[in-house]
Amino acid sequence: MTLFYRVKQFYWALTAELNDSDKNFIKVNLNENEFRLFNKLSLQERKHSVKVAYDVQKICNDKFKNIDVSLLLKAALLHDVGKVYTKLNILDKSLLVLGDKISKGRLKKFCNIKKIKVYYYHPKLGKELLENIEKNNELLYLVENHHNNRIKGNLNLDILRYCDKIN
Ligand SMILES: [Fe+2]
Hints:
The protein is mainly alpha-helical. It has a single domain, classed as Hypothetical protein af1432 (Orthogonal Bundle). It has nine helices and no strands. The longest helix has 20 residues, at about 45-60. The radius of gyration is 15 Å and the shape is globular. It starts with a helix and ends with a helix. Fe (ii) ion binds near residues 80, 122 and 146. It comes from Clostridium lapidicellarium.
């Protein structure tokens, strides 16, 4: 990810708010249980997830007509739901991204620290949370693997990862 995107993300996080059409969009695309879980996320995370979902919708409308858009929109809105376990503020996140780079991933060893655990393992934590309320395995798979760049050839995952990265 370029420095330009990082700076943009930093600015977005500082100025995050949900307007009425965001709130409506969330309500339309999530059921009651999903909505309840989603609302446990910080405002920054909710705003990020909505932006990811808007881009997913745009890409699907423009390029991919045969995709299950409602599934992918749910995945976009819920992909970071594993972050409900702790609030990672923008400074935490900047330090974690930097620490991960400098330590070449060895920061992972300090998973006894909650913020570090959530940073690295929120996809798995999110999938485990969603298992209680979701039956759709593809949705669980997308959430669990949204940072797994080794998986190739899954169009849904490619779209989700791309939209996550640019937001
Ligand atoms: Fe994530």
